[in-house]
Design brief:
- This protein is mainly alpha-helical.
- The chain has 5 helices and 2 strands.
- A two-stranded antiparallel ribbon has the order 1-2.
- Strand 1 and strand 2 form a beta hairpin.
- The longest helix has 47 residues.
Length: 125
């Protein structure tokens, strides 16, 4: 009879450490997921509040980023152009509202918009 004896203590220790690290990683992922969900919920609540505030303003309010993408529009703005939020938000407004609208108040307004600065316009040219 021939027998082989091996010490597997180290292998068992490594396996136990890997299992422990796996559990810790899962806990961290769950914790981070909870944090992200809470953050997204807070952001959605803030955006909803901001939209409610702007929707109740009788003036046309909109935020168009430097790339001419509409990021925020109130009800009055949407009604003025006869569009829905889905039709406008995130889209290039020169295409959605027409190239002429992109020329509102001329080159000065475009420069201010591209720089992310405020523009107070009185209408569409």
């Amino acid at each position: 009879m021939i027998g082989v004896v091996r010490d597997i203590t180290e292998r068992k220790q490594v396996a136990a450490e890997v299992a422990l690290q796996h559990i810790r990683l899962e806990e961290r992922v769950e914790e981070r997921t909870r944090e992200l969900r809470a953050g997204l919920a807070a952001r959605a609540e803030t955006e909803s509040f901001a939209q409610t505030i702007t929707d109740n303003q009788p003036t046309l309010l909109a935020y168009i980023d430097p790339a001419f993408r509409l990021r925020l529009a109130n009800r009055a703005f949407l009604a003025w152009f006869g569009k829905t939020r889905d039709e406008l938000i995130g889209n290039d407004q020169r295409e959605t509202l027409g190239w002429g609208w992109g020329a509102v108040r001329g080159a000065r307004a475009r420069r201010r918009a591209r720089a992310g600065r405020t523009w107070r316009g009185a209408g569409v040219a």
